[in-house]
Design brief:
By secondary structure, this protein is an alpha/beta fold. 34% of the residues lie in helices and 15% in strands. The chain folds into two domains: 209 residues, 3-Layer(aba) Sandwich (Aspartate Aminotransferase, domain 2); 134 residues, Aspartate Aminotransferase, domain 1. The protein has twelve helices and twelve strands. The strands form two sheets. The protein has a seven-stranded mixed beta sheet, with helices on both faces. Strands 8-9-12-11-10 form a five-stranded mixed beta sheet, with helices on one face. The chain binds pyridoxal-5'-phosphate. Pyridoxal-5'-phosphate binds next to helix 4. It catalyses: L,L-cystathionine + H2O = L-homocysteine + pyruvate + NH4(+).
Length: 405
């Protein structure tokens, strides 16, 4: 005879509902008296309203109302709060990548007929995004010399709506005079948006220098593990925040709270990591400058880096990124062989994780407004958390093997 295991489930429980209903309506909350350090992971698509009045009182501008998981849950809200606080901002919005955050600035603030200014040292996909909107959506995009400073005023037209900045450019490392550009823009009613990913919001505080919008690729130091893609837009002005938030809602953009939780887990040690990357990068950059194979080291803390005086004035650190220009006597094939022979430096984009990375760039093809003064090949290094002696030995061995003793 078979036993009927379902029988007890068919019997109503004490509250009159059956097991299947009670398992759905268990209404579990964190018990009072339970405390722990991590921010709880609050996954949700649907958010429940206590009554219809609460639902009908929804105001999309009100950031303290819970509306729908796409827009925020307590986990993503806590990350937004911490990121806004880090940069001294008031509002933060999260995006599924740094590039999606950049895209939100365009779609939130620019419409057909408007004009946008982009520095010649901008992250290439930002340039591509601008070019795409120019081709397909009737805006104009113009590129400017990142060292233009106050001279930006002469480029501003009545229809200029946004000026992008990147400080320093994450490949070529020029450091613009951010306060001068921000002042000139503000005097003419134009918004400034900085890609502040290089500094992670730790080493440069855009709002102290008059910038309106700070974009972060959280993919890098904030995540710290090379395993999360996310971006943020931090702002101080309510109206600018609402325009960006509206665009984000209309485009249906959201982030995974599990990813938020990973970033929240990494934030407490970000400053320590940043400082460790900074020290190791400085050691290697200083050593590379002495090598006969290297024509120039591009590091904002070095005196000959364009905009070094702005770096000294406005930044408190540099992190793990710098580039070198090889002597022009080496062919690209030799440089490629040098890169491929590195054992500890992995070939790959981005930065901010524990592992060292290397990427060659063809800079002349990435610029349109300013001539590139160097003739040799540019290679960007990201210095990870390996022992710096091993990293130096790795580079030295590959230099010897492929570029001669
Ligand atoms: C300067 C800069 N900004 C933004 C981004 C975009 O970040 P994500 O990779 O999250 O789209 C990158 C990515 O490499 C970057 O280098």
């Amino acid at each position: 005879m078979t036993q009927d295991n379902r029988k007890p489930l068919d019997t109503p429980e004490a509250n009159g509902w059956h097991w299947q209903t009670n398992i759905l309506h268990a209404d579990t909350q964190l018990p009072a008296g339970f405390a722990a350090m991590p921010v709880p992971v609050a996954r949700a698509s649907t958010v429940i309203f206590p009554d219809l009045a609460a639902m009908r009182a929804l105001d999309w501008k009100n950031d303290s109302q819970w509306r729908y998981g796409l827009h925020a849950t307590p986990t993503s809200m806590e990350l937004m709060r911490r990121l806004a606080a880090l940069e001294g901002g008031k509002h933060c919005l999260l995006f599924p990548s740094g590039l999606a955050a950049i895209s939100n600035v365009y779609f939130g603030l620019v419409k057909s007929g408007d004009d946008v200014l982009i520095p010649d040292n901008a992250y290439s996909p930002n340039r591509e995004h601008g070019d795409w909107l120019a081709e397909s959506f009737g805006i104009t995009v113009r590129y400017y010399d990142p060292m233009i400073g106050n001279g930006i005023g002469a480029l501003i037209q009545p229809n200029t709506k946004v000026i992008w900045l990147e400080a320093p450019g994450s490949v070529t490392m020029e450091v613009p005079d951010v306060p001068a550009i921000a002042r000139a823009a503000r005097e003419r009613g134009v918004l400034t948006a900085i890609d502040n990913t290089y500094s992670a919001g730790l080493a440069f505080r855009p709002f102290d220098h008059g910038v309106d919008i700070s974009v972060q690729a959280l993919t890098k130091y904030q995540s710290g593990g090379s395993d999360v893609l996310m971006g943020a837009v931090v702002t101080v002005d309510d109206d600018v925040h609402h325009r960006l938030k509206r665009a984000r809602m209309r485009m249906g953009v959201g982030v995974s709270v599990d990813d938020c939780s990973l970033v929240l887990r990494s934030l407490p040690n970000m400053q320590l990591r940043f400082e460790a990357h900074d020290r190791a990068a400085m050691t290697l950059a200083t050593w590379l400058e002495t090598r006969h194979e290297i024509a120039a080291v591009l590091h904002p803390a070095f005196e000959d880096c364009p905009g070094h005086q702005h770096f000294r004035r406005d930044f408190s650190g540099a992190g793990g990124l710098f580039s070198v220009v090889f002597d022009e006597r080496y062919s690209q094939a030799q440089i490629d062989a040098f890169i491929e022979a590195l054992r500890l430096f992995k070939i790959g984009f981005s930065w901010g994780g524990a592992h060292s990375l290397v990427v060659p760039y063809r800079v002349p093809s990435m610029r349109t407004a300013t001539p590139w003064p160097h003739k040799g090949a540019l290679v960007r290094f990201y210095i990870g958390l390996e022992d710096v002696r091993d990293l130096q030995a790795d580079i030295e061995a590959s230099l010897k093997a492929h570029l001669g003793a």
